[in-house]
Amino acid sequence: MTTMTMLLLIVGCMVVTWLPRMLPFLVVRTVTLPPIVLRWLQYIPVCILSALVFETIFQVEERFVTINWLHAVALVPTFVVAIWTKSLSLTVVVGVVTMACLRIII
């Protein structure tokens, strides 16, 4: 009984995760979007990544904003590599390695 419940739960979670990600692609595939909408959509990945980065660096504790200096220091070489190479995979590798080295040192 528990195994069937767990299997149904996993399948349900899969469907709930998959549908919101795939439906926009299916809808947009058949529709021609205006150029202004396409231009606006180009900024979404940058906005999402910026939000994730700023959320990690700036933390709200009670009513004060604090800076997570470990993450802020790791951001510097990662950002330099991102600007210099424009390679997402190399940027991620540099960020992970930098963070790992900082955690070992500090």
From TrEMBL:
<keyword id="KW-1133">Transmembrane helix</keyword>
<keyword id="KW-0812">Transmembrane</keyword>
<feature type="transmembrane region" description="Helical">
    <location>
        <begin position="40"/>
        <end position="58"/>
    </location>
</feature>
<dbReference type="InterPro" id="IPR008407">
    <property type="entry name" value="Brnchd-chn_aa_trnsp_AzlD"/>
</dbReference>
<feature type="transmembrane region" description="Helical">
    <location>
        <begin position="88"/>
        <end position="105"/>
    </location>
</feature>
<protein>
    <submittedName>
        <fullName>Branched-chain amino acid transporter AzlD</fullName>
    </submittedName>
</protein>
<keyword id="KW-0472">Membrane</keyword>
<dbReference type="Pfam" id="PF05437">
    <property type="entry name" value="AzlD"/>
</dbReference>
<feature type="transmembrane region" description="Helical">
    <location>
        <begin position="65"/>
        <end position="82"/>
    </location>
</feature>
